[in-house]
Structures are given as structure tokens and as C-alpha cells.
Design a protein that fits this description.
Radius of gyration: 21 Å
Shape: globular
Largest sheet: none
Low-confidence stretches: none
Distance between the termini: 31 Å
Strand content: under 5%
Number of strands: 0
Number of domains: 1
Helix content: over 70%
Mean pLDDT: 91
Structural class: mainly alpha
Number of helices: 14
């Protein structure tokens, strides 16, 4: 994303979404009395925040070209593959190596991790479409499979967004209604909430969130927030409201709907000229957030088993060790970002550029 299209507060927010998911996965390994705080228990909603962000950003980057008739589906999909697939493949292989090594070394691992029947779906990013028999390998990557579903469907989302472009608030209300209805009806058939779906219904889980993100983009483009102070105040209020609702056990529906409103206010920080949430370190952490999300479970597998074997601690760690556990995921993610994610993305984009340049030109 170039500087003209880069909305830095949204990039920074990605890191907080990723760390919310990390807390959700890591908290059970902390030896602490009193159980898990409600805010941490809702950490699975960090994925919903990513999904809403994804709909907003993809509309921001690609909807103008779609409106002009210049949207190139093949180039779009290749750019999306370059963005998500290299690290997905690297972490999948990494989990395989760790699991095999742990088994040889006598560590205890979940037998489903090395689910060979689920491997083809994982490799093809189809494991959130009900095509993987077990939640194996790098389990958080189910959401990348869901994202792939949204990428393949993006022309439909873009077509709808352009149809309702002149009525942004109606579009937001419609997306909100779709989300509310799905969240209410899905448990009647599946026996669990849509926000807890992974490999069986993950492709459906992204749909209302992605649509909400697209609608939030339309509201933002309507220039509803023109005052810098109002954008800052509303952003702070919405973040506080999300934290409070999560802490006090609000239903998933109002929480996720608030994510949509937050996209509008955070993007308005940029459009009104505010520097809030644009610090270099905050934006950088947002840039490595995908790596944070993708390495958190492999690191959990390695760290917990190593701590048990080398330090003799139980799976519930003392606070000091747990703090090392959770903080260390950030430099590990930075390494994955710089050694795998960025160079592989650049290489794939360069390859595509060379192919286009070498293609015969017809008058």
C-alpha cells in the first residue's frame, strides 16, 4: 500500500487485534487465581476485528479501480496470495517440523496437529470451508482460509458496495442487519455461535464482518467526520466501549458492530489530519501483526514444551515466565516478517511484474 492509500491508525489497530488473540491463546498457561478475565475470554473477537479491517482496506485500495472499470481480478488475487501465502506455508511447515521433532524427543503433543488428511486443504487454503476433517497444523490459519474465501468473492462485495455507494448509512445498516441475523440464527442450526466457528464454518464467519467493513468504508468516504477533535474523541470513546463491553460480557453482535464504527473513526483520524495512532513504532507493530497472529500457536507449542522439559515447570507458568512467553512473540514475529513475509511478497510481486512486462502487446 502506498503512502497515499495508507491509513496508519488502521494499520496500528491490527497489532492490538493480534495481541488480543494472543492473550486468548496464552492466558490458560498462566498460573493465576480467579480464572480468565472476561476481556481475555473474548479474545477470539480479535479475528472479527481483522475481518472487518480487511473489508474496509480492500475496498479502500480496490473499489475506486472497480468503479472505473480497471479492476483486474487476476492481479488482485496474485497480490493477495503474495500477501498471505508465504507465511502461511512457512508456519505450516514449521509446525510440522516442530511436531515431528517434539514426538521424537518425547514431548507430548496433540495427535491432531499432524493431521495428514487435513494437509491438502491446509495447503490450498480451503481448510475453513468444511474441507478439513481436523483442526490440525497451524490452527489459526483457518482465518487465512476464510480470508481467501472473501478474496475470491471480492468482485461480488465490490459490486454490491458500488450499488449502494450513494446510500452509505443504509449500506451500514444492511450489513449490520445481516450480521445480527446470522449471529442469531446460526446457533439454532450449528449448536454454537458463528464467532466460534473455525474449520467447519470459517468461510461463512468472515462474510458479515467483511460486508460490515465494506459498508464502513462507504460511510467514511461520505466524509461524515470532518473535525479532528471529534475523530479523536470518537475513536477513544469507541475503543473504551469495546473494552468495556468485552469486560462485562456483552453479546458478540454489538461488539462487532462497534468494530465497524471504529473503522470509520480511525480512518477519519487520517482524513482530518490527526496524528493520533500514527507513531512509527505503532505502525510498525501493525505491519508485523499478521506474523504475530501466525506464529503465536507454533511458539506456544515450542515454548510450553521447552519450559516443561528444561525448567521443570507445569503448563501453568509463573508470572515472570509467562511474561517472557507473551512478550517474546513480538521479536519472533518481527523475524518472520523480515525473513519470510516481506521478501517472499516482494519476490512474488516482482515475478508478476516481469511476466506482465514480458507479455506480448497487441494494438
Amino acid at each position: 500500500m502506498n503512502e497515499a492509500t495508507h491509513i496508519k491508525p488502521l494499520t496500528a489497530m491490527r497489532f492490538y487485534a493480534a495481541m488480543w488473540v494472543v492473550l486468548f491463546h496464552y492466558w490458560p498457561k498462566l498460573a493465576v487465581a480467579g480464572g480468565t478475565p472476561a476481556f481475555v475470554e473474548r479474545g477470539y473477537l480479535g479475528v472479527e476485528l481483522f475481518f472487518v479491517l480487511s473489508g474496509f482496506i480492500l475496498c479502500h485500495v480496490y473499489l475506486p479501480a472497480a468503479e472505473r472499470g480497471g479492476f483486474k481480478y487476476g492481479s488482485f488475487l496474485w497480490a493477495r496470495i503474495a500477501r498471505v501465502y508465504p507465511l502461511h506455508l512457512a508456519t505450516l511447515l514449521g509446525v510440522g517440523v516442530l511436531a515431528i521433532g517434539a514426538t521424537v524427543a518425547g514431548f507430548s503433543i496433540d495427535s491432531a496437529i499432524l493431521s495428514w488428511q487435513s494437509l491438502p486443504a491446509n495447503l490450498l487454503m480451503l481448510h475453513a470451508w468444511g474441507l478439513a476433517p481436523e483442526a490440525g497444523w497451524n490452527h489459526p490459519s483457518w482465518s487465512i482460509s476464510a480470508e481467501w474465501f472473501a478474496y475470491l468473492s471480492f468482485p461480488l462485495f465490490a459490486w454490491v458496495a458500488l450499488k449502494v455507494k450513494s446510500r452509505p448509512f443504509a449500506a451500514f445498516a444492511g450489513a449490520g442487519a445481516l450480521l445480527a441475523v446470522l449471529y442469531a440464527v446460526f446457533p439454532l442450526f450449528a449448536g454454537h455461535t458463528l464467532t466460534s466457528a473455525t474449520i467447519a464454518w470459517g468461510a461463512l464467519r468472515i462474510v458479515p464482518c467483511f460486508a460490515l467493513g465494506c459498508a464502513a468504508y462507504l460511510v467514511w468516504k461520505a466524509d461524515v467526520l470532518r473535525d479532528k477533535a471529534q475523530a479523536v474523541g470518537l475513536s477513544a470513546l469507541l475503543i473504551a466501549a469495546i473494552a468495556a463491553m468485552a469486560a462485562f460480557g456483552a453479546h458478540d453482535t454489538p461488539l462487532v458492530l462497534t468494530f465497524g464504527a471504529l473503522m470509520v473513526s480511525l480512518a477519519s483520524l487520517t482524513s482530518t489530519g490527526s496524528k493520533a495512532m500514527t507513531s512509527r513504532i505503532g505502525v510498525y507493530l501493525g505491519e508485523i501483526s499478521y506474523a504475530v497472529y501466525m506464529v503465536c500457536v507454533p511458539w506456544k507449542l515450542l515454548f510450553v514444551n521447552a519450559a516443561s522439559k528444561l525448567l521443570g515447570v507445569s503448563e501453568q507458568m509463573p508470572l515472570w515466565l509467562w511474561a517472557v512467553f507473551i512478550v517474546s512473540v513480538v521479536p519472533l514475529a518481527a523475524a518472520a516478517h523480515h525473513l519470510v513475509e516481506r521478501p517472499a511478497r516482494t519476490a512474488l510481486k516482482t515475478f508478476a511484474d516481469r511476466r506482465r512486462a514480458a507479455a506480448p502487446k497487441f494494438a
